[in-house]
Structure formats: C-alpha cells, structure tokens
Amino acid sequence: MEPDIDCTGLLCPEPVIRTKSRLEKGPDPFTVLVDNETARDNVTRFAKTMGCEVGVEATGGGWLVSVTPSPAGGTVVQAAPEGEGPSARQTVFLLTGDEIGRGEPELGRTLMKMFLFAAAESDSPPATLILMNSGVRLVTENEETAASVKRLEQAGTEVLVCGTCLDYYGLKEALKAGTVSNIYEIQGKLIGASLLVSL
Amino acid sequence: MSEDIKLTSFARMAGCAAKLGPAHLDEVLGRLPEEKAPQLLSSIHSGEDAGLYLLQDDLVLVQTVDFFPPIVDDPYTFGQIAAANALSDIYAMNAKPLTAMNLAAFPCGLDKCHLEAILLGGYDKVHEAGAIVIGGHTIEDDEPKYGLAVLGTAKVDEITTLRGALAGDALILTKPIGTGIMTTAHKAGMAGEAIDVVIESMRELNAASASTISSRDVHAMTDVTGFGLARHLYDMMKASGVAAELWAKEVPLFPEVLAMLGLGMAARSSVYESLSEGKVEVDTGGVDELLVQCMFDPQTSGGLLAAVPPEQADEIVAALQAGPALQAAVVGRVYASDLAKVTIKHSKEG
Description:
Chain A is of the alpha/beta class. Chain A is 38% helix and 20% strand. Chain A folds into two domains: 5-68, Translation Initiation Factor IF3; 77-198, DsrEFH-like (Hypothetical Protein Ychn, Chain: A).
C-alpha cells in the first residue's frame, strides 16, 4: 500500500511538518512512511500529543506510521482516567487570569480559589486545565490555588501552563503544578474540546 | 548585508545533532591504529575533548576541532556559536586558547557576504576569548558548514580531563539542556521567541565558568555536546572507573523544551542506543519519558559538566550563579562501582 505521506530520506523536523500540515487539512486517517528512528518517534509523539491514535508497523527499510485523528480533532483522550463518562474526558477549562469576572480584585481572586477548590473536590474533573496570562499565578505565586490544581492533576486532569506567560512574569522557577506548554499544544486542546469552559 | 537569509534552510541536520553517533564512531575508531608517543597524554578512545601533547617540561599543547551545519538563520550568529562551541573543548580541559583556524564549506550560488558574516562572527568570538585567527580553509558544498580548529596551552598539573571523578563527588552542570530540541523546533518554525535564550546560551563562552570551577578542587570536567548529557557523563564515569546517578528533574532545561519534545521536535533518538548497550539505564522507579529524552539531547555549545568534592559543590554553584552561569546546578552524584554506568533517576530522592 502506498503511504499517504512518503518521508523517505527526510530528516527532522520535516516529517513532523508534513504530518502537521496533513492533520490540519482534515480528520481522515492517513499513513506516514519514515526511514529513521528519530522521525518515527517524533511523528508518533507529535500525533499522540495532537490526540490522534497512532500505530507503527515496521516495513522493509523503515516504518509505516498510521495516524487516526480523534473525532473531535485534538484532545488527548488517554489523559483521562478510566471509568469516566465521555463528556468529562474532553472538557477543557481555560483560565486566562487569576480572578473570575470583572469587579473587585479581591472578590475575583476569592471566587477563583473557590472554583478551583470545588473542581478538585468534584467527581468528574476536566480532562484538561489550561492556564494563560496571569492565570499562571494560580500554579506559582498562589499556594492555595496551586494545591487545588495539584489535586486536579492527581485526579487525572492534564494541566497545561503557558510557557511564554511564565517567562513574561518571571515565574518559571516557581511552578508548583502542571506542565509547561506552548501555543500549538494549547490551540490543539481548545480545538479538540467537546466542552470548553472559559473563565 | 545584501538580503535576509534563512541559513538553516540549507542544513540537513542542526548543529551537533549532525555529529556521527557514538556507536558508529567507536566502531570506526576501533579499527584505526592507536597512536603511541611518549608526549601524547590523551587517547582518541577515551572520548577526551581535545588532544593533549606534552611540549616541554610542564607545558601541554591542547588541540581541538569542531564544525557543523547552520543551526540558526543569521550568519553572524551562526559564526559566533560555532566558534564558542569549538573553543569550549579548550575550556573543558582548563586550557587557554591561543590560535584558531577557520574550516568552512559554502554553496557557490550563495552571496559571499553571508560567508563573510559567518567568519566575522567567528573572529569576534575568538577575540573575545583572547585568541587570534591565523588562517583557514574553505571548500564548496551545497550545505554550508563552519567551525574552527583551536590550539591552546595548559600547565600539565592544571589540566582537567574525564579522568579523576571520585565516589561521592557532586556533578555540576553550567548551562541548561535542550539546544538540539529547540533548534529543531526553530527549524520547523515552531519555537517562536523561546529560541532567543537558547541562542544567547550557545554563543556564550565557557571561559568564565571554567575558571570559576578550576579555581576550586575540580576532579574531572568535560563539556556537553553532540552525544548528550547522559552519554558525556558516561564517558567521564568510564574514564574515571566509577558510576553516576543523573537526577533528571534537577537538570535545568531551556523554556519550552518539554513542550517542543511533545510536539515531535527531538533532534535525534539516540536514547535507545546507549540504553541497549547498558551504558545508561533508567531507574526502575520510573522517569518521565520526555525527561529521559532530554538527557540525550545533542547539545551545541553546551555547558561544562564537572565532578567536584561534595563539600565544595554549594559554594561552586553559588559562585557560578553569581557570575557566568545563572542556571548552574548540581545534577547528580558519583558512586563507587566496578562497572561504569549512568543511572537516570527522577530526582535526588529517587
């Protein structure tokens, strides 16, 4: 069978760039032929990060990587623990600040603290929590909210913290929970969300 | 400058990722005759950073060469990085660079002003190091390449090599890891501004860090380059006849490195080679797969890796952080073992 994308002779990052542009065209499954281990691992890792199902099959001189995009487009389903409803799996919380709503900052911060505490207590935590702009304070400077987020992580929520934002506020060293992420990964999660909760 | 140029578009592989893998190199070198001369103090089989030749009484000639395809788009910056990288081997041995010679390859169709800019970057870096450029050689090639052969000297009793690490030593790293991943991401147009601090780090000389470390009782030292941190550490352990724990969580990483790795931006999967040979192993307690990959990321102009007495480690790290190496850290420890190996642990505690 002819591969959909033939990356024979191509070195990284080219095979990933081609996989990425194919993925952006639509949700149809496709195959990528690679001839070196680095390309095999990179294409596999990229597709998994983008929420695709990935299969690798050795061929004569290389590997055929088959990529099946998730119906929603981008959520990492595997991040959710077993036994949860499908809706909870693709729920994404997006927090772009360290307060909820506009008004008195003190009230906004208290609401945020309560919200995260309640989320950590909940039986169905979100699949993904994304923290951007001053939202990164919630897992760095603010000990109380960081503790709630940490509990969410332990419950299986994937916590993505905007790296550019951490750098901007000089908070990278202070990260207490979550994984440093970037705009590509975050965009993939937002597009793939079946339910997006933005506060 | 005649026009903007995207130098990396001419490169097949980025920087030190272009280096031939250690297994392939060992195979070839193993078949070559071994040089034996009374003045020769180093061996190509030990993985030493530079060649050492005893010139007279206590004066040693330290000689090294390094070159690679572009890892950044700006020619002048590429020249600076290539020179800092070539000079690094001299500093890793606690020697002083004296002279350098350019090695360059350049496509005939490309405007020569870019070659000039590359060489100028190299000149400026060599001068910053207190050395001079005394010649060079340029060939035509579709893929540009640049580097230098550097000559330095050192007092025989002041040289630092891969040998000498003792059980109990603390392992200090002076620069963050991730240049291979980040330059690959940069080539893919995905790194954004996160590449800036990586470039700053790559063009930074290891001179001040080397003198800071060498002014204390350093036992062994090397620089982290194309084989990646774990493998360079293994070479040090093998030469010293000991073993080491490498604490993955303690290793400083450049911003966005893990995210870029998750997006398939590994420069080279050489992890499995070293793992399957038993030279490096991953702790049974489990270490994040992406962190393990970082321990093998090929570095261009990486930091120094030094084995120092444990009681001096904090003081040395503080001195490094106060000056030449803001992100210097203790990343592991040496222990006694009949079998040289490196064990990657999640953290100091396990």
